[in-house]
């Protein structure tokens, strides 16, 4: 690759979504931005419909926004992280506007604010109706392309971190089937979540947890891997292998109701996502249909309020102004990830993380609607500030890339394992079976490693909390305790599980008798 050697020593940001682009834009250093797809495509950020949550409206406050976030997180939010990230919400909206994001404005020329589930106030700022993520990405992609100090390498993905003396010394980059090694003392993982490891998801195909695997193989601590958020309302039908079309929380916030085939309501539409998702799953399991009826809520103008959703419905022969939409839950967000401090630093020196790949402490056991775009932008700023202040060692040669080890599982096999065992309703027997099935492949298969870590964390958490529900442990423990896994502990647990030894003793507080 022409000029590649000249990039040695620059921070490398892996990920072409909001978190990656914002980190690159908000730092002052020259940097390298890796995007597996053309910039702005195949990023979950571009699919975000609901908007960005910020306490900028009359009668709202940072304290109220923080209280809603803490309540949704069911005891596992870090209050300091919540205060810092939510507190930066008003500044984040202003910062995005300064970068060219055009928000929908009210008569007062301020962002028009909307209500979503589990928010006590209307505090969700939208852009282009239900196209907030696409509008944010449009603006940031344009800014990145116009910033000479940012070197964008498209079609490139982080393959491995190279360590020397326990800290990051370089990265291996996969591009066009060729592996390249680049010396650097700083890498930011902003590769998104794990949704594409599940059969029904709203995530793009790239959301397979590869950044989490890279961090784990470098020795990083991964936290709360078991907490997966299932969005209650994805369109029930869609092309095989494609992300499910999301029907935003904002539709329910505008007054749409969930009904069955008889027209009867059966749940509180604005309850936290995990509650609504379980209610829908139970109703479906009982043989009912589940429909989202927006006819009265939008008064025949659904497409004006939600143009993106209207297009998705039209592609499936649905008209939300005339008929209810068949919906069902789909994997939407991963609350777990690489454990970081408020500067985005992981447990591995030289490795930062932000966005969905990071476990910052904001979301706890269940993410509050529209807090993800907020976290991605705000924490990107924290990472950028920390990197600008960091004293980074001079780059040294890193040698040849390591060869691949072992054969990988097909994505269909991963889907089968996680879809059966790690869905909305889980139990110990199913989780153990899935972990044992994945165990032989974790040495060389990053998707299998991430799936196994998720199953082990869920198996170890013998309670139900937030996005993690165990049918064999339906109660919530009095003490809220984080789960933490490293690669070494994962391999030990898998070996013991495969041998049949009863060694999966949960940490104190993770079991409800």
From TrEMBL:
InterPro entries assigned: FAD-dep_OxRdtase_2_FAD-bd (IPR003953), FAD/NAD-bd_sf (IPR036188), Fum_R/Succ_DH_flav-like_C_sf (IPR037099), Fum_Rdtase/Succ_DH_flav-like_C (IPR015939), NadB (IPR005288), Succ_DH/fumarate_Rdtase_cat_sf (IPR027477)
Keyword Oxidoreductase: yes
Tagged with keyword Flavoprotein: yes
Keywords assigned by UniProt, alphabetized: FAD, Flavoprotein, Oxidoreductase, Pyridine nucleotide biosynthesis
Enzyme class: oxidoreductase
Domain FAD-dependent oxidoreductase 2 FAD-binding positions: 12-373
Family as reported in the entry's similarity comment: Belongs to the FAD-dependent oxidoreductase 2 family. NadB subfamily.
Protein name in UniProt: L-aspartate oxidase
High-level lineage: Bacteria, Pseudomonadati, Pseudomonadota, Alphaproteobacteria, Acetobacterales
């Amino acid at each position: 690759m022409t000029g590649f050697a000249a990039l040695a020593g620059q921070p490398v940001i892996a990920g072409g979504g909001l978190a990656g682009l914002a980190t690159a834009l908000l730092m002052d250093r020259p940097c390298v931005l890796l995007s597996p797809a053309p910039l702005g495509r195949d990023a979950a950020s571009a699919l975000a419909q609901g908007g960005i949550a910020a306490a900028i409206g009359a009668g709202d406050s940072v304290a109220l926004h923080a209280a809603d976030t803490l309540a949704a997180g069911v005891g596992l939010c870090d209050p300091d992280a919540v205060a810092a990230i939510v507190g930066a919400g008003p500044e984040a909206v202003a910062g995005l506007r300064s970068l060219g994001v055009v928000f929908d404005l009210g008569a007062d020329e301020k962002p028009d604010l909307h209500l979503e589930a589990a928010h006590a106030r209307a505090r969700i700022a939208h852009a282009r109706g239900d196209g907030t993520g696409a509008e944010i990405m449009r603006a940031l992609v344009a800014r990145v392309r116009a910033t000479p100090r940012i070197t964008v390498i498209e079609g490139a993905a982080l393959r491995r971190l190279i360590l020397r003396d326990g800290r990051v010394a370089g990265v291996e980059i996969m591009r066009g089937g060729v592996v390249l090694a680049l010396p650097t003392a700083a890498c930011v993982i902003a590769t998104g979540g794990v949704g594409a490891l599940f059969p029904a998801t709203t995530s793009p195909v790239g959301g397979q947890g590869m950044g989490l695997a890279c961090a784990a193989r470098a020795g990083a601590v991964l936290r709360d891997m078991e907490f997966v958020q299932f969005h209650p309302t994805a369109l029930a039908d869609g092309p095989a292998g494609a992300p499910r079309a999301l029907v935003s929380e904002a539709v329910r916030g505008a007054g749409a109701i969930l009904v069955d085939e008889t027209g009867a309501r059966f749940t509180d539409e604005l309850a936290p996502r995990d509650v609504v998702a379980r209610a829908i799953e139970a109703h479906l399991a009982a043989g009912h249909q589940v429909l989202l009826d927006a006819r009265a809520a939008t008064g025949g103008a659904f497409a004006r309020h939600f143009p993106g959703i209207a297009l998705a419905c039209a592609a499936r022969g649905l008209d939300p102004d005339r008929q209810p939409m068949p919906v069902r839950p789909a994997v939407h967000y991963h609350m777990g990830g690489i454990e970081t401090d408020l500067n985005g630093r992981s447990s591995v020196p030289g490795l930062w993380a932000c966005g969905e790949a990071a476990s910052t402490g904001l979301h706890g056991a269940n993410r509050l609607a529209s807090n993800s775009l907020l976290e991605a932008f705000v924490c990107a700023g924290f990472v950028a500030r920390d990197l600008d202040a960091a004293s980074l060692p001079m780059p040294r040669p890193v040698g040849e890339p390591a060869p691949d080890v072992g054969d990988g599982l097909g994505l269909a096999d991963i889907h089968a394992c996680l879809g059966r065992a790690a869905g909305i309703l889980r139990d110990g027997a199913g989780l153990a079976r899935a972990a044992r099935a994945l165990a032989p492949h974790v040495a060389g298969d990053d998707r299998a490693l991430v799936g196994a870590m998720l199953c082990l964390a869920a198996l170890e958490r013998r309670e139900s909390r937030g996005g993690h529900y165990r049918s064999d442990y339906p109660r919530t423990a009095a003490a809220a305790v984080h789960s933490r896994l490293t690669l070494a502990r994962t391999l030990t647990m898998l070996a013991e599980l495969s041998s049949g030894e009863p060694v999966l003793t949960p940490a104190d507080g993770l079991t409800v008798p």
